[in-house]
């Protein structure tokens, strides 16, 4: 069990007030976010059929919660890890045009997650996806979209301040762009996590780019599934989080693979067996739109804006009793 206890932690909202703030943040953010990126809200599945290849494989080692469906011939269904691939298929299925997109409330179970202040077995995020052209598969498109998301998050700080002035956690005024290779060059003797902490503490908010492929050292900064993000055109939005004295990841996003990058990355990940799935065949044959998309953590955003010490203060999940007891002893009230 890895748990950070901030010194003299005193929550500024009661549990009841926190619940009201959670509702306000979630409802307000998704409306503004959808408007700014031209996204429509869609319903989405909690589970997908294994044979479609639509589930997010994350780092490739996490096993999804699964079950068999009696009325579907015993087909294996998997609780989603995220909707990274499903969204791209949905954009085609529902006839979204260039410049249009979707977002959805995604609820997932990640049973292999290491539980700590930021990580839960229950994942709730706004999963989103937007249609672009092949010519828009560029770093500038990615950066422009990141700046828009940052602007919405920054505006939410002011909205929360107006409603809950005693609780709001103040955010930096600017987001900076850094690549994983630049971090390795700058901090060669640090671990990837230590590098993220160092650069985010210095700059306040960072979009860390190009995650998944090997660096000059031959090592990867972090794992990424090879079949949704293009590893050259993706990244994470990280904020420095004073209450816990480390960075907090709010979003993972990227421009999605085309046929060439899919083949290159599947080969690099020794995952060419996935080419048997309908989703991967559709990408190879240019049957799906070119897209950009990602996920924004709902509980993480609430935690960030309200200055909470533990994600369990803003979501109901399951935790080791020892963690619950220690949190309670330090005024961290787990829902």
Write a brief structural summary:
This protein is α+β, with helices and mostly antiparallel strands.
Characteristic terms for this protein:
335 residues, alpha+beta, BirA Bifunctional Protein, domain 2, 9 helices, 11 strands, 33% helix
Explain how this protein is built.
The chain has helices at residues 15-37, 86-93, 139-163, 180-186, 192-203, 259-268, 278-284, 298-306, 321-329; strands at 39-41, 47-49, 66-69, 75-79, 101-109, 122-132, 176-179, 205-209, 229-241, 246-256, 290-297. It is α+β, with helices and mostly antiparallel strands and 335 residues long. It has one domain: Bira Bifunctional Protein, Domain 2 (BirA Bifunctional Protein, domain 2, 2-Layer Sandwich). The strands form two sheets. An eight-stranded mixed sheet has the order 1-5-6-11-10-9-8-7, sandwiched between helices. The protein has a three-stranded antiparallel sheet with strand order 2-4-3, with no helix packed on it. The model has no long low-confidence stretch (mean pLDDT 93).
């Amino acid at each position: 069990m890895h748990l950070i206890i901030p010194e003299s932690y005193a929550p500024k909202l009661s549990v009841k007030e926190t619940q009201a703030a959670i509702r306000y943040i979630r409802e307000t953010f998704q409306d503004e976010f959808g408007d700014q990126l031209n996204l429509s809200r869609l319903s989405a599945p909690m589970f997908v059929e294994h044979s479609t290849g639509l589930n997010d494989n994350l780092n490739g080692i996490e096993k999804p919660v699964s079950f068999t469906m009696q009325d579907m011939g015993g087909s294996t269904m998997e609780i989603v890890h995220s909707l990274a691939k499903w969204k791209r298929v949905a954009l085609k299925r529902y006839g979204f045009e260039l410049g249009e997109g979707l977002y959805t409330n995604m609820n997932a179970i990640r049973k292999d997650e290491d539980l700590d202040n930021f990580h839960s077995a229950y994942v709730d995020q706004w999963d989103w996806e937007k249609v672009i052209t092949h010519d828009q598969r560029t770093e500038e498109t990615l950066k422009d979209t990141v700046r828009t998301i940052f602007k919405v998050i920054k505006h939410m700080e002011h909205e929360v301040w107006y409603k809950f002035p005693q609780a709001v956690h103040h955010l930096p005024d600017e987001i900076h762009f850094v690549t994983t290779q630049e971090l390795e060059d700058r901090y060669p003797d640090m671990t990837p996590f230590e590098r993220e902490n160092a650069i985010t503490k210095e700059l306040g908010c960072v979009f860390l780019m190009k995650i998944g492929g090997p660096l000059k050292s031959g090592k990867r900064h972090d794992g990424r599934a090879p079949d949704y993000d293009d590893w050259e055109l993706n990244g994470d939005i990280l904020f420095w989080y004073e209450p816990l004295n480390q960075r907090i990841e709010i979003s993972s996003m990227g421009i999605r693979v085309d046929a060439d990058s899919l083949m290159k990355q599947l080969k690099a990940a020794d995952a060419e067996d996935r080419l048997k799935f309908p989703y991967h065949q559709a990408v190879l044959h240019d049957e799906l739109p070119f897209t950009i998309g990602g996920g924004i953590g709902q509980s993480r955003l609430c935690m960030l804006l309200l200055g909470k010490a533990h994600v369990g203060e803003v979501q109901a999940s399951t935790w080791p009793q020892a963690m619950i007891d220690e949190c309670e002893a330090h005024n961290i009230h787990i829902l």
